[in-house]
Design brief:
CATH class: Alpha Beta
Largest sheet: 6 strands, parallel
Shape: globular
Organism: Bradyrhizobium guangdongense
CATH superfamily: P-loop containing nucleotide triphosphate hydrolases
Strand order of the largest sheet: 2-3-1-4-5-6
Structural class: alpha/beta
InterPro entries: P-loop_NTPase
Number of strands: 6
CATH architecture: 3-Layer(aba) Sandwich
Pfam family, one: Sulfotransfer_3
Order of helices and strands: EHEHHEHEHHHEHHHHE
Number of domains: 1
Protein name: Sulfotransferase
Low-confidence stretches: none
Number of helices: 11
Mean pLDDT: 94
Amino acid sequence: MQNGVHFISGLPRSGSTLLAAILRQNPRLHAGMSSPVGSLFMALQGAMSRRNEAAVFIDETQKRELLKGIFDNYYHAVHPSKMVLDTNRAWCSKLPTLVKLFPEAKVICCVRHVPWIMDSIERLIRQNAFELSGIFNFESLNTVYTRVNRLATSDGLVGFAIDALREAFWGENAGRLILVGYEALCKEPSRTLDQIYDFLGERRFAHDFENVEYEADDFDLGIGTPNLHKVRRKVSWIERETVLPPELFNRFANDAFWMVPELNTHNVPIIVPRG
């Protein structure tokens, strides 16, 4: 991590894996799907809390070094000389801690209109008709309504990510964020990547948007959700009809709070398609 660490966070099914697949074409950068670092980070925080009676022997400096050591040790072994962009939806909820560990860190938040996030997950479940997904605890008896309702709860896959993004968007560290719209990434990848590089203070790179590669087949199969992290070779935008019942789709139609200018009180930069 000699060249620093930044973070990719935001909403699920909103382009974080695609963005990482593009960025990793740059030999100066390392990016990927959610790494083990986030879960190790959260587990260590729990182990150092008062839930552990021996935590009384761990002072704040030690806590800082132990948490930072997860990043140092993991990425020193993997990519010691690259700038790291670590991915996890929970990072938006951990900014007060992250900025103390990495004072120069910035966060790229991938966003997408929420109805289409729900649609994307439902479409993936239906494509894997003979698999039960770990997203829903491998349960067999459910419907599109129970699945979407579960995703939307505050501890659900989508609901938690939205709450974490809200926390960061209106928090004291909002100046570290940039929001990247999925539609902008797909329709205008070159312009979008240029803005991301400018935000990070990195020199721009000529990416090949016709030949993007990324796979995590073993991971996806392990959670019963093949193609969860599959990235199409060519970056493009595909228009489609939703598979959700109208009332479910419309339920989330106004949840894109980041698209309301009056609510952007910290002037967070937001990349959306032109026109």
